[in-house]
Amino acid sequence: MHLSSPTPFPSQRPRRLRRDAFTRNLVREHRLSPHDFIYPVFVHEGEGRRTPVPSMPGVERLSLDLLLPVAEECVQLGIPCLALFPSIDGALKTPDGKESLNPEGLIPRTIRALKAAFPELGVMTDVALDPYTSHGQDGLVDESGYILNDETVEILVGQALAHAEAGVDMVAPSDMMDGRIGAIRDALEAHGHIHTRIMAYSAKYASAFYGPFRDAVGSAANLGASNKDVYQMDPANTDEALREVALDLAEGADMVMVKPGMPYLDVLRRVKDEFRVPTFAYQVSGEYAMLKAASSNGWLDHDKVMMEALLAFKRAGADGVLTYFALEAARLLQRPRA
Ligand code: PBG
């Protein structure tokens, strides 16, 4: 017992506010809503075609006809936006990824169909070459194996324009080439697409947590033992993330993103504090796979860890989260509380 203590009682009892649900509800600092989510989906050709992604339990690649009801549920649940990722036929993959420029390609057709059916639902597309290249890299490769920057940016500009012509609401360059945000912004302006929003994958790390995604778009086998270390960021760095965000904002990004999510919450917080701009987190495929695997083994409570992980992004400063849990989490949020 401390003799200098003025009373034998604690002078503050923070537990008072935790005692009942009503006070916990009153003082809660952050809340999740379906409006916080962007739902990434994988599309492929065909009709009535769905193929599961084994490393992402519950995630399937869908043909357009099967995607439409999913989009409808997003509208009903209040999920503002879908993010489209293509799993294209292996025969269309080339070293230069030129199928990414095809105005009649899978993604432009999907954009048009979604915008026609659900004009109020936001549609976002990835701008990057990896689903389209025979080597699985996000850019053109020279003889030495180096990923060329400026030549790649030229193709990315064409890809972004093809998506804009098809009516996409937001493009999200995920390639990490230098100068691509400025080049895409200039091209969008020059072609009259002044409303097309750019969400820049600004602080995108060279992460092993993307493994299941690469299975989903079929780039994993093509990539083989090579990596993306010469363009994606070193997981050891955070000052560099601020520099990347500053560049993307100066070049015309409307929103920025930190990716992966949970292992990089410190980066998210620094970016939000420094720039105070709309900032998003991507809870990536590997994070999803971990939570699914542990909960399907009964080691974690699925719904509780899902909501806790998503809430953590808001607490760390995210305005929204790209998450494969979007539908499940939004359904849970919509359910009337007991
Ligand atoms: C493509 C891209 C990747 C992801 C989003 N866009 C993979 C990569 O960079 O290798 C990863 C998403 C995820 O893991 O969920 N450039």
UniProtKB/TrEMBL annotation:
Keywords of the record: Heme biosynthesis, Lyase, Magnesium, Metal-binding, Porphyrin biosynthesis
InterPro entries: ALAD, ALAD_AS, Aldolase_TIM
EC number: 4.2.1.24
Reaction it catalyzes: 2 5-aminolevulinate = porphobilinogen + 2 H2O + H(+)
Top-level lineage group: Bacteria
Active site per the UniProt annotation: K204 (schiff-base intermediate with substrate), K259 (schiff-base intermediate with substrate)
Pathways involved: Porphyrin-containing compound metabolism; protoporphyrin-IX biosynthesis; coproporphyrinogen-III from 5-aminolevulinate: step 1/4
SMART domains given in the database record: ALAD
Pfam families registered for this protein in UniProt: ALAD (PF00490)
Record CDD domains: ALAD_PBGS_aspartate_rich (cd04823)
GO process terms (BP): protoporphyrinogen IX biosynthetic process
GO molecular function per UniProt: porphobilinogen synthase activity; zinc ion binding
GO CC annotation terms, alphabetical: cytosol
Annotated positions binding Mg(2+): E244
Listed NCBIfam families: PRK09283.1 (NF006762)
Subunit structure: Homooctamer.
Family per record: Belongs to the ALAD family.
Protein known as: Delta-aminolevulinic acid dehydratase
Organism from which the protein derives: Melaminivora alkalimesophila
